Amino acid sequence: MRAPDALTTYVREALTSGGERAAIAAAARAAGWSATETEAALASWVDAPGLPPVPRPRGVVSARDAFRHGLMFFALLLVASHLGLITFALIDHFVPDPLDTLSGGEGRIRWSIAVLLVAWPVWAVTSLRLARDAERDPGQRRSAVGRWLTWGALFLAAATLVGDAIAIVGGFLSGDFTLRFLLKALAVAVIAGAIFLAYGHGRDRDDTA
After folding, report:
1. How far apart (Å, rounded) are the C-alpha atoms in residues 142 and 207?
2. Of 1, 14, 90, 169, which sits 20 to 30 A from 143 (CA to CA)?
3. Is the pTM higher than 0.90?
4. What per-residue confidence (pLDDT) applies to 100?
5. What pLDDT, on a 0 to 100 scale, did the predictor assign at position 174?
6. Residues 148 and 191 in one domain
7. 115 Cβ partners below 8 Å, 6+ apart?
8. For 51, phi and psi rounded to 5 degrees?
9. Is 97 left (phi over 0), alpha (psi -120 to 50) or beta?
């Protein structure tokens, strides 16, 4: 949790004037700040003997980061959605439904392949460059835009998994639990689960870095 700026500023001034952390925490609590807010504000500063308290690194925002992370996650959205469409079309082809009179499966596959041929390299290149920059400069991991977009992708992946589970249960209860339905639900779960695992790994550690 990020402490409010007013409390963080107060803690800095109190530490600079020589105040004890326990006394500062007690004063903040008496003023109405919660224990979590107070701890976060105190944790924002590191004691430096003979020097003013040193601020811990905080998230940064830049137009360059917004462009690169936005492009990466937009490409990821295209890759995930059209990979799912191709999988659905292949399932429809190999597990046909006599009652399904919709056509155009080949056209949908060609269009999705075209999207993947463009979007996948964009996602791969931007991901590799962001990872390489983070290796050279760990401060790049503090991009506020990157964190927000990553958590947004995790939210969409988690929501998809929940919705997929609901669809499976609903299909089972309504008697529509066919092989075709199960394969499509499994495909959605695999794609969303892969995104959730890939971008969720170490996320709490990076957010506290």
Report:
1. 7
2. 14
3. no
4. 61
5. 83
6. yes
7. 78, 82
8. -135, 160
9. beta
Name residue 134's amino acid. Answer: A
Residue 133: domain span: 63-207
Say yes or no: 101 and 173 in one domain.
yes
pLDDT of residue 160: 94
The amino acid present at 69, given as its one-letter code, is: H
Q: Name the DSSP class of 122.
A: H
Residue closest to 77 by CA, chosen among 131, 147, 185, 155: 155
Q: Which two tokens stand for residue 126?
A: 């931007």
Region at 129 (left for phi over 0; alpha for psi -120 to 50; beta for the rest): alpha
The tokens describing 171, both together, are 């299909």
pLDDT band at 171 (very low <50, low <70, confident <90, very high): confident
Q: Are residues 44 and 113 in the same domain?
A: no
The tally of domains found in the chain comes to: 2
* Token reading at 209: 């870095």
